[in-house]
Amino acid sequence: TLPGGDGPNRSMLLQSGRYFDTVGWMSVKLDDNKTPRNLEFSRRYLDNNVPTYMFHTGKKHTSSFHTQQGEGITRHIQEMEKSEALTEVFGYLDSDYYLDREEWNEKAKNNHSIFDFYLDAVEATLVNNTMSPNWLFLSNWGILRGDIYKGPFTKSDFYAISPDDKSPFLYTTVTRDIADQIAKKVQDLEREEKSGSKKTPMPRPETLSAIQDESQSRFSLPQKSTASGRTYGWVTEDDCGGDGDDTPHVPIPQVDFDLPGRLPVYFWRKNYESQNLDDSASVHLIVTNRIGNGRVPKALKELGVVFEPNLLSYREDVRQDNLLEIYINKTFPSSGKDKA
């Protein structure tokens, strides 16, 4: 708050787009601070990319905009990418896959849902049908945290959208009637655990608006035409009135995962739904490591299941850190290219 008699009327706070989507810029017209009155503030939310900065600094060529220090940092990042093989291409995707554009629905497959993409990878790469003639795979949405796009998919992109977790997937054997209840039970338990304390909303991964290069994790949204001629991007809402965005955008469609009354987000797939499988038939319940060491055992106990203290490792060769690599490499081959 600036010195003066009006307190909050002489203060200003900017909240720019999350994940560095936009950068807040503010100016204030100061007075002599002798008469109590409001100050005049101006603010703009700038898209975080080089063309925006070049426009506002009056630079027409990148050669006059880039600095030696900035170029040095760029070279350091590129060398690190090379040394860590971050530009290694796993495959070339033929579509975009989104985290939270639409609700995930078990009954209706969405060809652009990253949840369904991951479940396809599980079914094709993780599940051993000889070992598991009847199976159900279950995960919370924490295993995924961003969109992926058509084109080359690299190791860097994997790190951007999924934790680098070398843990194995876990499993246990249950009867069909238990398998059919487990997803709802785990969701209910998580909601009950969080209902007693003030919940801090989990930040939702959003598509970062950045300059394109050949890496998935740096792609902008596809430039889709709209009636207004605007492109998708961050749309700022603040209490100042008017439009503070330097470049107007159409808001990115997004499902709110944290609406009151909504069950926590989990996704799952089973291979026995269309079969005439008895309620007492055995089903392999396969889960991610995090929930397999937490809520799943608790849910099973509440459903009356007696089992070993810990779930078992499902496979040693297909883990949480290489599932997508194996699947994409096999299903979307890179046609001999090995660099993004």
TrEMBL record:
Region (Disordered): 186-228
Polar residues bias locations: 209-228
Molecular function per GO: hydrolase activity
Ranges of residues in domain Putative 5'-nucleotidase C-terminal: 96-256
Biased segments, Basic and acidic residues type: 186-196
InterPro entries, alphabetized: 5'-Nucleotdase_C_sf, 5_nucleotidase/apyrase, Metallo-depent_PP-like, Nucleosidase_C
GO BP field: nucleotide catabolic process
Domain of life, source organism: Eukaryota
A Pfam family this chain is assigned to: NadN_nucleosid_C
Gene Ontology CC annotations of this record: cytosol
Protein's UniProt name: Putative 5'-nucleotidase C-terminal domain-containing protein
